[in-house]
Write a structure and sequence with these properties.
Low-confidence stretches: none
Largest sheet: 7 strands, parallel
Number of domains: 1
Shape: globular
Distance between the termini: 46 Å
Radius of gyration: 18 Å
CATH architecture: 3-Layer(aba) Sandwich
Number of helices: 8
CATH superfamily: NAD(P)-binding Rossmann-like Domain
Strand content: 15-25%
Length: 258
């Protein structure tokens, strides 16, 4: 094994990827598996889960699927119990479940606001409590919470989503501060504009033009371009002193002003 391979190797590690049936986290799950981790793909759709498992298997990786409801603390606790029984422990957790809505500001109803906050923020809090305790009791681990470029600065048309992601960024920093001495690293991976299921409703023609005008790379990101950042944050060697950061992968979007 070369120096670089050893630095980023996840051999012997178990990674739980919540939202692993989706476009972005699915690609992250594939990358973790290619680096040697046994990956637990977590989602609601068994069909999508099976498709992701076939991709990982074709790449020579190891993975299995578990269905879980991130809105339920009991379901997340059962998820951890199942993984520990099957694999022994959890070393890496990716929190990627999320929902979005383009509802205009004055039309946002309390029910929608509460639903989006509960999935985007509440689910991450619950899973960090449940899996974080396990990691603390077992000598450490890495938690990667999926943030958003709209969590760094407000974007139009996604009011509740932006507020929920900003809270995820803050929560991640607080957890990183709380658990650093005990070996549990918590970071936020911040994708820029990557076409995925969550944002297709808001990617109108004029909005795409505005995004491209503000992105030095002048294109959308490809899902596989998140893998490098994922491996850095996941690896206990390469990322051993990396905690509490916002790892931005956005083609330069956040570097632009005018």
């Amino acid at each position: 094994m070369s120096f670089v391979e050893d630095l980023f190797s996840l051999e012997g590690k178990t990674a739980v990827v919540i939202g692993g049936t989706g476009v972005l986290c699915g690609e992250m799950a594939l990358g973790l598996a290619k680096a040697g981790a046994e990956v637990v793909v977590v989602g609601r759709s068994e069909e999508k889960g099976a498709e992701r498992l076939r991709e990982i298997d074709a790449a020579g990786g190891r993975a299995y699927f578990i269905s879980a409801d991130v809105a339920s603390r009991e379901s997340l606790s059962a998820l951890l119990e199942t993984v520990v029984t099957k694999t022994g422990r959890v070393d890496i957790l990716v929190n990627g479940a999320g929902v979005n809505s383009p509802t205009p500001l004055f039309e946002i109803e309390d029910e929608e606001f509460a639903r989006i906050l509960d999935i985007n923020l509440g689910a991450i809090l619950r899973s960090c409590q449940i899996f974080g305790r396990h990691m603390l009791e077992n000598g450490g681990g890495s938690i990667i919470n999926i943030g958003s470029i709209s969590g760094l600065g407000p974007l139009s048309r996604v009011f509740t989503y932006s507020a929920s992601k900003a809270a995820v960024h803050n929560l991640s920093k607080n957890l990183a501060r709380e658990w650093a001495e005990q070996g549990v690293r918590v970071n936020t991976l911040v994708p820029g504009f990557f076409p995925a299921e969550q944002n297709r409703k808001v990617l109108t023609e004029d909005r795409v033009a505005a995004i491209m005008g503000h992105t030095p790379a002048n294109r959308f990101g490809n899902a596989e371009e998140l893998i490098g950042a994922t491996l850095l944050l996941a690896s206990e060697k390469a990322g051993s002193f990396v905690t509490g950061i916002e790892m931005i992968v956005d083609g330069g979007f956040s570097a632009m002003s005018i």
